[in-house]
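Have a close read of this protein, sequence plus structure tokens, and explain what the tokens say about the fold. Thanks in advance:
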Amino acid sequence: MTNRKASKPFMTFVYILCIVLAVLSILPFLIMLINATRSTTEIQQHAISLVPSGYLLENLRILAGKSFNPMRGFLNSMIISTGSTLCAVYFSTLTAYAIVVYSWKLRQPFFTFIMAIMMIPSQVVSIGFYQFMYRIHMTNNFLALILPSIAAPTMVFFMRQFMLSSLPLDIVSSARIDGAKEFYTFNHIVLPIMKPALATQAIFSFVSSWNSLFLPLILLTKQEKYTMPIMVSLLKGDIYKTEYGSIYIGLTLTVIPLFVVYFLLSKYIIAGVALGGVKG
């Protein structure tokens, strides 16, 4: 009885802390939506406001006048992000499957090599990557941003950890005894078991690819190839004035697909992260 009474203040504190953290998480998005309805002058005078204004249509008109094509940007970003996510998730899971299920001589050195690659910042190899893409005439080509996602060492590590804790090897052995081919076993038996991890990593990969600006900015030079982040980065006024209201609308349009993907797959995040970190 005493322990129950003593736990009530603690639980109250936990609930209050969770509410405060939730408000702090939602507040930036709320401010972004509200600023999309305000004029540049209002934003400059009071950067933070919780009261919507009446300049939404005017900001949309300014946005349209800057040759901002949200449909084209959405389509380009969706093609790159979806293709990149599918390649990263499938081939990373396939690589992790080969490390966990098969017993071969260089298995541990190969995994160590993958871990070493994780230590190399992507910015270090960006110049060489651009030169390579330029020499093989892959600039202004979405494949230059999709195919490199096949090599995702961080995702391989996560999938390996998940398999070690959640994939019964007896199921794979039984499938082999029944005559199932290796790719059939992987596609129809292993992948369904990996669904929480696949959904979790799909969210992270999609968000990362959608928000990517640096590589698309140097590889895509044609306006019809621009992604949403590139278009938003170019939403600047002349040298005298920047229309911040239209920029906030562009940011809002960029964020919407991320919310959709997150809410569709969010139920798998907790299960995927928890199970993936159970066993090292």
About this structure: The chain has two domains: 2-63, 69-236+256-276.
